[in-house]
Amino acid sequence: MTGPSETIYAGLEQLGRSTDLPASPDQAVLERVANPHPGTRYAVRFVCPEFTSLCPITGQPDFAHLVIDYVPGDWLVESKSLKLYLHAFRNHGDFHEACTVGIGKRLAELLAPEWLRIGGYWYPRGGIPIDVFYATGPVPADLWIPDQGVPPYRGRG
Question: Can 99 be counted among the known catalytic residues?
Fold first, then answer.
């Protein structure tokens, strides 16, 4: 006999299974599940404080603190697939802007959320921190969306 959770998660390729890390973000499979509260407006936040990618010029690692907020429509991102997708950037060379905006656009395309934003708070490269922000529209005025809570980079100051 199948319970409600088995029905909700039917068709997922990664959840509850041993899954290898994708070789690249393009090869990563992002999965979605039905929103269990359709018609209820609420915000979802994912934080990846140890995001890593590679500089496309030097091949050296770049580090960021990512904060992803969205207001779901019909879909939620399945968290294991999101983790694998984000970790696939560890061997991927791209600029900060390409990584941050690319993640935001891919999630927006997959989920068709009411609203989505991503903040990429990158640690300094060449002495200059680069912060990158992407949103699908203005912050919903009638829904509590907390500040992302990441202070500006101050180094050892």
Answer: no
Using one digit for the tens of pLDDT, what is the confidence trace for 87-126? 999 999 999 999 999 999 999 999 999 999 999 999 998 8
pLDDT digits (tens, 9 = 90+) for 52-90: 999 999 999 999 999 999 999 999 999 999 999 999 999
What is the CATH classification number for the domain harbouring 45?
A: 3.30.1130.10
Q: Known binding site for substrate: residues?
A: 77-79, 96-97
Annotated catalytic residue, options 20, 26, 48, 55: 55
Within a domain: 148: no
Is residue 3 assigned to a domain?
A: no
Residue 46 bridge partners (DSSP): 68
Domain count, the chain: 1
